[in-house]
Amino acid sequence: MNNLKKYLINFGVLVAIPLLMAAFVRKEYVVEREIIIDKPQNLVFDYLKNQENYSQWGVDFASRSDKNNEILHIEEGKRIDFSLGDFGQFDTNDTAYFITEDYEGNKTKVRWGIKGKMAYPANLLLIDISIEQRIANDLETGLENLQSVFDEEYLADYEAR
User: Fold this and answer.
1) Residue 103 and residue 148: Cα distance in Å, rounded?
2) What's the pLDDT score for residue 21?
3) What is the pLDDT of residues 99-126, one digit of tens each?
4) What is the pTM of this model?
5) Is 20 among the domain residues?
6) Domain for residue 15, yes or no?
7) pLDDT of the residue at 135
8) Tally of domains in the chain
9) What are the helix (H) ranges across 23-110?
10) What distance separates the 2 farthest-apart alpha carbons in the chain?
């Protein structure tokens, strides 16, 4: 009986330590990446405003064009804020945004960011820096894909609108 008591105490301590740590770990995160696109700001912004275009260049969360990926606010010509909805069994209140800025006259700087919150005790995962790095990698890939869309000839059709 003495051994069982020791095992139970050790098990309790092993479970309690991570839960206690999670109480002191940050719960919010922000990841942002940017790219320069060799097109005018108004063209890039108009393209980003249309969520149907996301499937051509987006990654995972951006390419979903369902009702959960809802535009929350548009500051015309400058910023688009949208919710990311849920990912299967994960219901989130995370938001993402695009910010466009004029860059050297006829180019556009596009910043893509995600703001999120992880509830206790899942926030313990934020200790692992690779989670934020994975999001950053997805943003970088998406921005590179976006840039390649603007390099493609079929974009001429979109510009003609």
Assistant:
1) 18
2) 65
3) 999 999 889 999 999 887 776 676 666 6
4) 0.73
5) no
6) no
7) 82
8) 1
9) 41-49, 54-57, 60-63
10) 81
